[in-house]
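Box S2. Input/output pair 1.
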Amino acid sequence: MGEKNSDTPSPAQSALLPWAPPPLKPRLSSSSVTTASVGPTRARSSNFLIKLPSKYPRQRHVFLCGNHDLAFLCFVGTFPARPDRSTRWSDTWELYAQNEEREGWHKGEGYNEMHVQGRRWGGSVDLMKAVTDEHKKFLHDLVWVHEEDIVAIHTENDRIECWLIAMHAGLEKTKKVEERLQVLRSKDPSLHTVKELRGRMNIIGYS
């Protein structure tokens, strides 16, 4: 994290103007952020993120959903509701049902109303009950895709205006962009899995 230091943008920030935020003065050493894993401190990490908008009101904060977040929110029961408000998700099990015994799907309390991603990666019922309403809301509100209509990138000879699309694991060349964006914008709860949120070997910078 950081705080505003001056109104003079760095060369890297200038390349993204006017979209880039103000320059920041580092508050954390690089050695303290060498890994993206939250490890056993999920609650503390969530609290840190939840407080950012009020702590830095001049900044805009966008929190993207990833495959681990998706599995966790499915497990704790905060997955986006169906249009008919149904809470039963057994119809999402079919695609992976042959892996149920091998993967050791969750069969404890509430499993019969759980989305397949929650059953596949779920854990302790005590953990489910320990998640606060504030954290559940944070998980529920995570966006599957974020878009910026105009992002200006300055090259040596020109200024290019681009359409920025951000998501956890990127789009695939074989899929129509607008088609997939509609799915991601809607946070379609009927899907067995969401490829754009999953870890894939062809993603640069994935962690």
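Box S3. Input/output pair 2.
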Amino acid sequence: MEIFGKLIDNDASLASDRAAMLDILYSNIPRSMLAVILNATLFSALMWNSVPHTRLLTLVSVMVVLPLMRMWDSRLYHEDRGRCTIEAWQQRYTMGVLGTALIWSMVTPVLFFAADWPGRLIIGMVLVATAAGAILSLAANLQLALLYLFMLVVPYTVAQFIQFNFQCAVIGATTLLYTVIAASGTRAYHRVLARSLHNEKMHRQKSDALASTNAALNRQTGLQQEALSQLRKTANSLLRRRGKNEIGDDENGFDRLTRVIANLVRETERLDWDLERDLEAIYQHIMISKTDVDGRITYVNDLYCKTSGYDRSELIGKTHQVVNSGYHDKKFYADLWQTLKSGKAWRGELRNRTRHGAIYWVSTTIVPVKNEVGEVTRLISINTDITLQKAIQEEARNSRRFLQSLTESMGEGVYALDQWGYCTFLNPKAEQLLGWSPMELSIMPMHDAIHYEDEEGNHLPADSCKVMKAMKRGEAYASDDQIFISKEGRRIPVSLISTPMLEGGEVVGSVTVFQDITQRKEDEARLNAAVSAAKAANQAKSTFLANMSHEIRTPLNAILGMNHLALQQRPEPKLRSYLEKAQKASNTLLGLINGLLDFSKIEAGKMELDRHDFLLHDMLDDLASVIGHQASSKGLELLFDVAPDTPDALHGDSLRLRQVLLNLCNNAIKFTEQGKV
């Protein structure tokens, strides 16, 4: 600290002087800061009607916060000054002083411009009073005192001068004059104090020289040497535990060893404090319980109580049977206690029950604590709640059981591959069809075992296999014409669907469902043979019909011709009637024969319509003459109901239309028992 160095030499022999000066400075802090807080309160009262309340309270709060912090720092110094070095306490004190001056130098101009004339005068008086009290307490450090004085007063003085009026100029000049006078007085007081400290320093140096001479004489005694040796051993033992350099044989000064041990003790205390904080953080996330050797609970942390639902008073003195759910048998606990009594730690999972009956799982480690002779004196149980993990595991097991039941009951074979093509799963149906066990297929690529030939029996490399190529592309693949080879060498035609398994967009394997379609292939072959036979039979039928119709039409045309010639001879009416009916019946028969030929043409795709003009009533009369006797023989009345708007002259294939109507009428007469058609 440069500021303190101007007054107090940094020589190690004067460390006590510097400590004494710090005592004076830190002892003055509470009184000085109470004065600052009082002045801030006075400011707020004076400025209450001149400055907006929110702004005023904000400024006053800023003025008060740092004094409160400095008072807290003074308390820390007097309660535990050994926690920091003298240099560190000097630095903290200097920063506090400068911070206070800086805040006041910033706040007072703001209040100055917001206040009226009396308020500004009061602000100046308060600043002068504050500066007068502060520089006396800081006189031991001249630079710090002068810096504080000017930082406190100069901004107010500048604010007075920039008002450009006579009253403010007088106040500013007066304040500046006071500052110069106060600085001069502080310098004089500092010189007096410096001379006093110098004399004290010389006295201390002489005393230290005498003490050093006396210590040198004492070190010559054997008792002192033994004490120093033991002290050095103790210090070195502590230093080794902390991984620090040990004190050599030449460093046998009692003061040196004392300081080392004092520092080590402080460090140990700090480490103990850190360890305690760490343990508190750990205790918030794990359940801790302690028991005696008989299992009676002596301690439980808050999380244990919260999880179990019991108050601490309900658990202390009881055993862990309080939370026992009855899930574990007697042998389980016998093995647990056997492990602990042997002095070993026990690790496992426990299923417990809360006070309200809810089940929870914990991952537990129980550690036996031994005394100096190796006897177990108490047990510490460290528990982590794993209820959620157990629920997830149970859900996963249920899912696996469901999938296993599903795949085992399927009529199709199912197998899974990893990304290298090795089998990782094979359901019973797949084992039955392929003849391989999962263990056998786990040591060889699945393709090399069952899919090494194509449909024609040629060798199929893995890099040419469509199933493997689709998996590597991350695509699904389906096919009805693949061949698997069983372990016995039987070729099995299969229908399959292969789906890739992806993780993070990367292919990690595939699942394939396949079905033996040997029976289906055989059924298809038989069906194809039956279709071919049906086509041949149909062709024979068409040939037969064509031949038959040709053979029948030849004599029928002769009959029609002779009958036509007979009608040309103008026979008697009765004979004419017979001949005309015979002519119509022959035409009908000829139409039937033509119909058979039409069926053949339809099947061959060669049917053509004979479009021409004809009269509807002639067709109906001809139809009535053909089927009239059938209707009368069953006692049915034959009626033709033609819509009034139906034209009589039509254009189309009269022969096909007549055939359709004839078929309809024949069916109607056939299935009608009485009434009319």
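Caption for Box S3: The chain has a mean pLDDT of 76. The longest strand covers residues 491-503.
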